Amino acid sequence: MFEVGKSYSFTVDGVDGLGTSSYQVVAWEAPLLTLASLHEPDLILNTASARFLSAKPVDFDATAPMDISAFIKIDRS
Fold this sequence. Notes:
By secondary structure, the protein is mostly beta strands. The protein has one domain. The chain contains no helices and five strands.
């Protein structure tokens, strides 16, 4: 189901309600995922947990710095 090295957007039901974050899969030993991101230590996500809602592949590397110029138009004139 998950591909090591690929990044996904994960939706979980957390203490403060639904949350979505992007991570790269470092290891997959069903039902546990080891996940990495740029600004957080690696974490373990139990996909069998009722709090795990979904994961969708994304087309960027969740462990790489983002180029914000792709999202913001900067007028340099």
